[in-house]
Amino acid sequence: MRCFTVLGPSQTGKSTVVEKLGSLEGTPRKSSSPYGLNLTEFTFGNEAWCALDAPGANEALAHAQHALLASDACILCVSSAPEEAVLAAPYLRIVEASGTPCILFVNRMDEPRGRLRDVIAALQDYANHTLLLRQIPIREGDRIIGSCDLISERAWRYREGQPSALIAIPESTAEREHEARTELLEHLSEFDDWLLEELIEDREPSSDALYAISSRVLSENRIIPVLIGAASHGNGMMRLMKALRHEAPPVGILRQRLAQTGTVDEGKLVAVSFHAYHRQNVGKTGLVRALGEGLRQGASLGGSSLGAVQNLANGRSNSAVLPAPGDVFATVKSDHLPVPSLLTSGAVVAPPEWTEPPTPMLERILVPGSERDENKLSETLAKLSETDRGLKVLQEEGTGAQLVRAQGPVHLRDLCRTLAEVFHISVTDRTPSPIYRETIAKPSEVHYRHRKQTGGAGQFADVKLSIHPNERGQGFTFGETVKGGAVPRNYFSAVEAGAREAMEKGPLGFEVIDVGVTLLDGQHHTVDSSEHAFRTASKMGVRQALSEGSTVLMQPVFRAEFHIPSVYSGSLIQIVAALNGQVLGFDRDETAKGWDIFRALVPGGALEELARSLRSATQGIGYFSKTFDHFEELYGKEADAIVRAKEKPGAAH
Which pairing describes strands 459-469 and 2-7: parallel, antiparallel, or unpaired? Predict the structure, then answer.
């Protein structure tokens, strides 16, 4: 079986392309995953094929990345509008990072919204590989009525619902065809000395030789050939499928590529797991592509026994099925196989770094609908994060509530639906509260005496404490200047412990940071003093000093690193400024053409709005990762509102 992925932005007709390709020589067999990955098995040219139709939403980019892990080649569907080229930037990025041979297909040429050369030029801004036209459109007025193949120099006229008809190259197209063919041959000659010599000697190379060179160049991932068509009318589908059949490399090349990037012995690499999902009453279903011989139900794979091998289309198990190299199959009761991963018979090998999905930006607290759901939620989210690497599961600081990081609102909605429909867990979501702190603005001293007599031994401790602000980031410090044994040394640790305990919650209701406490003096009683008494005196004294002092609210500030196409960098400056952030600068992304890495400091309370504004400004393409940088003072109405909200019952810490 040969396998390819069809990917690209939403509304570029990917699913229609797969449907038309699968129906060229028979009836395809379809299956789908809840995550939006659709699989189509079909036969073409007496060979078995499997097309992986990856979801087009940017929030589902991880599933497209994982599909490439199992693909011999891919088809990148793009719009025929030059201004929409930026929407293909994330897909060009992951295709090039993966090293997957790619054919770029400009779809919907029946409704052109710009010149083809402008479309290619706009896309080239985001591709390190040369985008090389293999066809040009034939026009009648404003309509595209066919295409001309630049290698065979044959022209085809589209016919609705029928195979295209062979025609002579129209005079109106001849000059453009000659120009585009010359450019094609010049680019191909960069990878073939024989062709270069033929061109220098002004000899016309044969079509068969050119097809052979094109096949090798694609297999070696040197260029990205560009084909055109209109899938909804069936136009260009046969040519696209023939290009895949003759030029896409066999499964052995994929095995070599994965072994090199995954640092695993090629001879031991027998399979790759690339997708998984949970089904009600079934459990985890994994999708695997065989890369070597010997796979069957019960065979050792990834260090344990492979579960039932199932047919993709009908889900039926057959223990007699022996997947051949290249076959794609489903398996249940194989929970030991993580997704994605490279698999030998005895071990699981981590996938290449390029499979790492974009950092999720949307944070939400999931609130279970009942106590029963609360007990199940943590375990279930852990399971889902194993099959969806775009999802991160944590716990909220202070409350321990389940916090999830999703790729976006659609991703979050799908997660909640899966929890309800598959696991019968009802949840609502809320925005997590930023982690605020407080500190003091000026030093003070306090004298506190703790005395308690309840019969028998009493409690006595007398402390004089100095409390002062520390430098930002210094945290809590403790010292003592006691003279003459007024407070015995063995009680110093109890005084420090009491002071630390007082810092857990200050007058504003938040943890106190960057404060120093010094024990200046005190008194003790030979009978009634104890570590407990001095700990209590210290805690109460520090609390009193904090309440009498000038406390200041501290907000968290995060260092954010944005990954965005360069055309959006200017708008990001305005977004950060509007959120009271500080721009630190940006550089060209050396790993992705046409992208910038932008850095800024952003208040924690603005992260929710930042994610929303970034999605809006970059059409859902841009994303950012964040790391805590420091706390800074916050004053005025905003600080007052935060303190008032903290005082409400049930407010998060």
Answer: unpaired
CB atoms closer than 10 angstroms to residue 321: 17
Helix axes 171-189, 193-200, angle to 10 degrees: 130
Neighbours of 473 (CB within 10 A): 10
- What pTM, to 2 d.p., does this model score? 0.89
Going through 58-109 in order, the beta strands assigned E by DSSP cover 73-78, 102-106
| pLDDT exceeds cutoff 60 at 651 | no
Residue type present at position 248: A
Is-contact 101 67, C-beta < 8 A?
A: no
Query: Residues for the chain: how many in total?
Result: 653
Residue 154 CB neighbour total at 10 angstroms: 14
At 121-149, the pLDDT tens digits run: 999 999 999 999 999 999 888 889 999 99
Cα(293)–Cα(325) distance, rounded to whole angstroms?
A: 6
- Residues 188-207 have a mean pLDDT of 93
In 3-state terms, what secondary structure has residue 175? helix
Tokens representing 247? 């030029």
Cα dihedral 194, 257, 126, 597, rounded to 10, equals -140
- Structure-derived torsion over alpha carbons of residues 490, 495, 496, 498, reported in degrees to the nearest 10: 140
Report residue 180 as tokens: 């585009």
Kindly state the average pLDDT of the residues 61-66. 95
In angstroms, the Cα distances linking 494 to 323, 374, 487, 489, 532 are 68, 39, 11, 10, 7
Residue 365 CA to residue 401 CA, distance in Å, equals: 7
Task: Please say whether the beta carbons of 1 and 29 come within 8 A.
Answer: no
CB atoms within 10 A of CB 207: 13
Residue-wise pLDDT for 65-122, tens only, equals 999 999 999 999 999 999 999 999 999 999 999 999 999 999 999 887 788 999 999 9
| CA terminus-to-terminus distance, the chain | 55
Task: Please give the Cα distance from 419 to 379 (Å, whole number).
Answer: 11
Q: Is 120 helix (H, G, I), strand (E, B) or coil?
A: helix
Burial class (CB in 10 A: 0-12, 13-18, 19+), 211: middle
> How does 59-97 read in b/e, with b if 16+ C-beta sit within 10 Å?
bbbbbbbbbbbbbbbbbbbbbbbbebbbbbbbbbbbbbb
